[in-house]
Here is the input.
Amino acid sequence: MEAASIELFVNAIVAGLLLGGFYAAVSVGISISFGMLDVVNIAHPAFIILGSYIAYTVNARFGFDPILTSVVLSPLFFALGLLLYRIYYLCFEKRGQESLRGLAFFFGVLFITEVTLVLIFGVDYVQARTAYTDATERIAGIDFPLRLVVPFFVSLAMVIGLQFFLTRTFFGRAVLAVAQDQLALRLMGVDPVRVKGLAFALSIATAGVAGALLIVILPVQPSIGREYIGLVFAVCVLGGMGSIWGTLVGALVLGTAESFTATFFGPSWAPAVSFGLLLATLAFRPAGLFGR
Here is the structure.
């Protein structure tokens, strides 16, 4: 019995870490748009679901791997992000109305995207099929479902790549500086609006990749994106606003906590963990784990 309990404990840890890796991919775009740019893009999960359906369509019709498809099509999501930010800037940010009306704008984008997907695909759940979707490796009594393992490593690569890009390039440092002092950035000959537009587009591109990871892990339907609104902001705040490493660590912590809760107390309690950790973080460490 004791050996079985230890095996269950270890499997819960592994499942939580793998799930947390996926949460990092889902949340890293919010860390850029909300944590670094002060743009409350509450429609971010809608673009994740859009990425899921595009990857699913290509997979169903041509048999291409959904994750590879999302990487190839990420420039389209980048262009969509540029267009969306331009509309947001001209209609709200330029006029100083980004707080409440800008939030309403993103709510509108969320529901328009959701309704469009419903009209095109219906409300039934869909899932992409790959060679690794139903495969599981068992090592020393520990299960490693490949539908979680593959997205975990893809997410890890994306997060690490973003971290090095934002800290080792001039553009990345400009993104980190744009929310702190736009006047100083202008004096250096950099247009903060252009920087914010490109950074926001980058956040939308990550949503497209995260959507492909989601369609590999779970079946999706158009309204499922609402379930991730609280989660992405919880991870962003838990890790520290604008910290990419913090997003990764916060996602791993949240994934592990949810896995333990689902394993030992039941799946119905797992969603409460996100908000419980968020409230605890705001109470005891408002800046987050890696916040300044």
Q: What stands out?
A: The mean pLDDT is 87. Residues 2-36 form the longest helix (35 residues). The two ends are 45 Å apart (CA to CA).
